[in-house]
Amino acid sequence: MEQKYKMIACCGINCETCEARIATIKNDDKMRVEVAKKWCEMNHTDQITPESINCTGCRVEGQKFYFCSHMCEVKKCVAAKGYETCGDCPDKKSCKKVGAIWENSAEAKENLCGEVMNNKALVVIDIQNDITKHYRDIIGNINAAIEWAVAEGMHIVYIKHNNITAATRTFKPGSKGEELVPEMKVVSDNIFVKTKSNALTSEAFSAFIAANGINEFYVAGADATGCVKSTCFNMAKVGFTVHVLSDCVTSYDLKKLPEMFAYYKSKGCEVKTLADYK
């Protein structure tokens, strides 16, 4: 199924990687301060405050940065002409309004030439505060994988585990332990909760897969012997194409990783490093 990628702004900029949107999704006041300062310096103004850094994206429901919602000449023009983005306009190549943006962002121009999201997704499993601390050894690789997947036009998905047993001490719903780790790049609000090891048991995640026609997955996260194992097995079992990013997966017992990688391969998954896909 082809579906317009709503995180591409009217001008072609990818809202999914926008610092204001990331600060909003993470509700990170420290990041809001940093973004406001940076944008003030870039725009030679002192009118951008941390409190104004709230935006979920140009073309999606939710909060909007004031400039984007009220002052952006590109967005006004697109709305006036009844288009979705500048990519729909026959005059886009000669337009000075969007041209000024494209001069500074070749990616924005390219995005409007291929605005439809592909059928692939990067799925990051259970990189939460209560997971094995070995995640710190691979968090740099996971962040690099996220950047790569965004550039490739993939959907970025985060899976969180919730332990709903009464006496649980880890992954307890609403606790700090079940939150995504602060070191990880969060570039989308595609965050789904599961209560079993297999991520496909999340009804919301399964519905997202169906709605977006996704049939190919790149998997990262933890634990290699638990939730990553179960998710990869079940994805491959139902016919999805599964790629395991070996340098983006970890376990509480690192000695088990070679055994797990062999297991994934035996179940029809491809196992390669991130560099092999770049």
Walkthrough of the structure:
The protein folds into two domains: 15-111, no CATH class; 120-277, Rossmann fold (3-Layer(aba) Sandwich). Helices cover 37% and strands 13% of the residues. The protein is built from eleven helices and six strands. Helix 1 runs antiparallel to helix 2 (29-43). The longest helix has 17 residues, at 135-151. The radius of gyration is 20 Å and the shape is globular. The model has no long low-confidence stretch (mean pLDDT 89).
Give a quick set of tags describing it.
alpha/beta, single chain, 2 domains, Rossmann fold, 278 residues, six-stranded parallel β-sheet
Describe the protein's topology.
Elements: H1 19-26, H2 29-43, H3 66-71, H4 73-81, H5 96-102, H6 106-111, E1 120-125, H7 135-151, E2 155-161, E3 191-194, H8 203-212, E4 216-221, H9 227-237, E5 241-249, H10 257-266, E6 270-272, H11 274-277
Parallel strand pairs: 1-2, 1-4, 2-3, 4-5, 5-6
Helix pairs in contact: 1-2
- Please count the beta strands (DSSP E, at least 2 residues each): 6
Q: Pairing-aware structural class of the strands and helices?
A: alpha/beta
In sequence order, what are the helices and strands, one letter per element? HHHHHHEHEEHEHEHEH
What amount of the residues lies in strands?
5-15%
Q: Catalogue the unreliable spans.
A: none
CATH class of the largest domain: Alpha Beta
Strands side by side in the biggest sheet: 3-2-1-4-5-6
Q: Largest sheet at a glance?
A: 6 strands, parallel
Radius of gyration: 20 Å
Binned, the helix content reads 25-40%
Q: What is the number of helices?
A: 11
For the record, the CATH architecture of the largest domain stands as: 3-Layer(aba) Sandwich
Mean model confidence by pLDDT: 89
